[in-house]
Amino acid sequence: MAMTKRTKIQSEIEKARLKLVEQQTRIKELEAKNTELENMEIVEIVRGMNIPLDDLTAALQSIKGGNAPARRTSGQVDPKSNNDSDKEDETE
């Protein structure tokens, strides 16, 4: 009888391991899809900047270095401007 309980537990362990492998595979698939969508968003943003391809590298390096280009597209929010009055209203 003890052997049957042990066999049953071993079977449950194997089932749990299989489920774990399936979930890990699913997580990898979802992460890949997420990365693909994120990359598509980045491409859309960069294309929306209307910067010639020859100037793109310099513009991105300028942004990375903290020297954002003066040229801005409509609807962009300046990340350096903080509207502290909005934050105060939220905390009250």
Task: Please give a quick description of this structure.
This protein has 92 residues and is an all-alpha fold. The chain has helices spanning 2-48, 53-64, 84-91.
Description:
With 92 residues, the protein is mainly α. The protein contains 3 helices and no strands. About 15% of the residues have low confidence.
List descriptors.
about 0% strand; 3 helices; mainly alpha; about 75% helix; single chain; about 90 residues; rod-shaped
Map the helices and strands.
Elements: H1 2-48, H2 53-64, H3 84-91
SSE succession: HHH
Major sheet characteristics: none
Chain oligomer state: single chain
Structural class: mainly alpha
End-to-end Cα distance:
67 Å
Specify Rg, calculated over alpha carbons.
26 Å
Mean residue pLDDT: 81
Work out the strand percent: under 5%
For the secondary structure, the number of strands is 0
Shape, please? rod-shaped
Count the DSSP helices: 3
